Amino acid sequence: MKTQQNDVVAEYLRELDQRLAGIPVLQRRELLADLEAHIAAERAERHVSGEGELIEILERLGSPEVVAAAAHEEAGTVFRHPAPPRRRLWPWLVGAGALLVVFAFCAFALFFARVDSSEVPAPGPAVTAPVPEPQPTS
Amino acid sequence: MADVSQLSTSLRRGTLEFCVLALVETEDRYGNEIVRRLGEEPNLAAGEGTIYPLLSRLRRSGWLESKWVESPSGPPRRYYGLTLDGRSALDHFRTEWVSFRHTVDRLVGTGEAV
Predict the structure, then answer these.
(1) What is this structure's pTM?
(2) Whether B38 contacts chain A with CB within 8 A
(3) Which residue windows are coiled coil (chain B) (predicted)?
(4) Which of A9, A124, B37, B58 is least crowded, fewest Cβ atoms below 10 Å from its Cβ?
């Protein structure tokens, strides 16, 4: 029961912390410590026993969004999502690269299959430029 | 409805901090006391938690000072008190506010009938 209650508080503080990105670290830590002390004092003074009462304490504090908005207003900062978009670009680049390799391989295989079956030199000689390279490896 | 809350937000901005200063004018109080007292007023605080960033700013600007004190029941409490700068800021606000209020009352027609 006790740990379940701590989970609610921890989750609340974590959600708040996520929305404090952009605020100087010491102000961020100060706010979290103040709220932690506030919750602990309320629990001690009101002899809070159940999770319902604990949620009431958190509701009186205000949602993480509301508290974070007040913090950003006081600090003169703006909430930005911390995840940089550059990181998301990498999987796409890798995927596109892999696709290109597969295409090149297919074209390569197709070209050779045609050469083997007809034994006629390729009509476009310039296209064969990259072809000789992989041969020694196989 | 959105306009109503927007208006109270605007009115709160710039005045709430002096309500906080006035709360600790005569005696030091800890965070929960201040926050609870303001939370009881329907048109002042949007949520008790929104007062803590304000307390932090007032402390950093030198109008409040704070100290952590052991509590006989429960965890340590952070007490806030008025500094000399905070006291003169509050005095200044009081004179400004009275003349400001009179002006608004006169222009908006909310003052007592003359």
Answers:
(1) 0.73
(2) no
(3) none
(4) A124
From the CA of B32, how many Å to the nearest CA of chain A?
6
Output the pLDDT for position A138.
45
Q: Do A42 and B32 touch (CB under 8 A)?
A: yes
Scored b (16 or more CB within 10 A) or e, B65-84 reads bbeeeeeeeeeebbbbebbe
Fold of B2-108: Arc Repressor Mutant, subunit A (1.10.10)
B43 half-sphere exposure, CB direction, 13 A CA radius: 11
Classify residue A96: in a domain, yes or no: yes
Q: B22: Cβ–Cβ under 8 A, 6 or more apart, which residues?
A: B90
CA–CA gap between residue A43 and residue A6 (Å, rounded): 11
Residue A80 forms part of a structural domain: no
Q: Residue A40 in contact with residue B73, Cβ under 8 Å?
A: no
Number of domains, chain A:
2
Question: CA of B56: how far to CAs of A4, A31, A73, B62, B80, in Å?
Answer: 30, 8, 12, 10, 10
Residue A130 confidence (pLDDT) above 80? no
- The DSSP element (H or E) to which B29 belongs, if any, is strand B29-30
**Do residues A71 and A12 both lie within one domain?**
yes
